[in-house]
Amino acid sequence: MEPEEILEPLDPDQRAVAVATTGPVAVLAGAGTGKTRVLTHRVAYGVATGVMDPRRTLVVTFTTRAAGEFSRRLRAMGVNEVRVRTVHSEALRQLRWMWPHAVGGQMPRIQASKIGLVSAALTRAGIKLDDAGRRDVTSEIERAKAIGLGPQEVGAQGVLAERLEEVYQGYEDAKAAAGLVDFEDILLLNAGLIRDNLAVAEQVRQWCRWLTVDEYQDVSPLQQQVLEGWLGGRDELCVVGDPSQTVYTFAGATSDYLLGFRNRWPEATLLQLTRSYRCSPQIIDLANAVLADGDVRQRLLLKSQRAPVAAVNTRVYETEQAEAAGVADAIKRLIAKTPAEQIAILVRINSATARFERELQAVGIPYTVRGSARFMQRPEVKRAVSLLRVAAKQPGTGDVAERVAAALEPVGYTPTPPLGQAQREEWESLAALVGLARSHDSLESMVADLDERAENDDAPVAAAVTLASLHSAKGLEWDAVFMPGLHEGGLPLRYQGEMVDVEEERRLFYVGVTRARDILELSYAQAGSRRENRQPSRFLPEGHRPQPVAKRAAAKSPGCQVCGKRLAAGLERARGTCGTCPSDFPADLFEDLRGWRSRVVAQRRAATGKATPAFLVATDAVLVGIARTRPADRKALASVKGIHKSVVAEHADELLTIVARNPLAQ
Fold first, then answer.
1. Residues 324, 478: Cα–Cα separation, whole Å
2. Does this chain's domain 3-93+187-273 share its CATH topology with 571-660?
3. Which SS3 state, helix, strand or coil, does residue 364 take?
4. Which of 69, 120, 508, 558 has the most CB atoms around its CB within 10 Å?
5. Distance from C-alpha of 632 to C-alpha of 629, rounded to nearest angstrom
6. 3-state SS of 440-466?
7. What's the CATH number for 303-372+465-555?
8. pLDDT (tens digit, 9 = 90+) per residue, 43-76?
9. What number does CATH give the domain 571-660?
10. Section 633-660 average pLDDT
């Protein structure tokens, strides 16, 4: 593309960033202001004007998903040789080259998880902790390494207090003895080899002649050390970030490097992006109000460029169960006009997704939990990609999406979704691939795209509602966002009786709010599992404090199919009749199935040491469905509404045996 063609779609503020092709440059970019667009256009403009050599240009992103998106946008503008990676993946790539040149021999293996070696170090120290305690110690060691503290420098902190140094040193000793390195060691070794070996440093700096760093508000001291090693004494650096979205300080991240950019480079160009093209005015007004009540340094006052869409609603429910049911009901109404993939439920902690999973399953809404099984590693996706490779080598013309759909028919793709939950989940993966095909002009380019997505763990959008934690939602956006659990102790979070960093929680709330384009639904439950009387979150400004909606879920409960009496939650609602009316419901078979479910719960507890809620194995509605339909084979069992594919895969024989030994009453 010609330089002026690259600049044409940008607004004046974005254009100012794009033409600032010589560093140092720092950009404060608010949520939805086109940060990825302006960065890609800046790099493309620098290449088009001859200022940057694409082979020596590096863009550092926070996630592999962001790296994949950035690369695709650059390729669309004809820029193909720029490297776009996370700081860890680039450091590892360099380290694999450095090791034989600077150290010799084989590079140590990278351990996938610290928890095993940390547990061994705790055992040697005679310290007994439960699973949560071991995870906390692991996190404390990770944070210490991220901010550059060795075992002798950590002091007394966390669950181990003064014994953290001993366990940290024990972990490092065990790791060294096993010939392993961990995630943080990749950065430490990279920085150390660049510091101590001039030839290595010169080669790396040739690779990183022009450096762009996204999400700069979330770099850790260790990451900053690596970035400075790549730069050397040069200043060809562009950093972009938003201090209001610093949400990883628990992992060592700090916005100090962004906010203090001119302390190191007094001559730096400082720019701002405040026009939000993502969020409606109502959502931006709430986001601005949330930050105005806090202590956020250099916060940006955003201005929505959108027309008004809908008011931000805040609802309060009696219980958490009523809240989950209310959210599912609202999504069921919304999904008629908003695609499922454009709807998200964002929660503060991962465990909170369970009750929403159950309610979405009960009303037949497909969903995906972000951060669970990696999309490109799913068996059905691997089979599909293999078929697409074969199809790409065969002659063919016509619409790419139609060719992909035809190629995927042997593994279960159909134009309309199947009824069974297990088949539906696999179908949604295949449908996401068909949807992705619409953005390609050939099967060959799609297969290349899928290979890159597999490397970057970057999944195409599935036709399903997303459930995600607020942290994992960072960098994403949807048309409609539901944020439940907005009470004191939920957000801001109270952990082990103490409120966590309130200002970081405020920033996390801001991140969640600004994921929504058009519709934002906020809610909380007045009572939790302990029946406490909750107060609304302090982050809900005046005008967004809700009035209680009494017994909202109960008012929506169905009536008995015989007498019309209101049904109680649980078995009555699942089978459709009250306890006193006659029914054809096979009670003996149902009780046999409940016994099976109890055994599975007990087996899982014995295997993992953790309690599994019964409804996560199978809800009462699923057991009623099995009892009523009496499936005779795996295919029929998989068609039972709401049944999870893992239950079919692991327990089909048991369930079919139970059905067979409960004959129909004569």
1. 19
2. no
3. coil
4. 508
5. 9
6. CCCHHHHHHHHHHHHHHCCCCCCCCEE
7. 3.40.50.300
8. 999 999 999 999 999 999 988 888 888 998 999 8
9. 1.10.150.80
10. 87
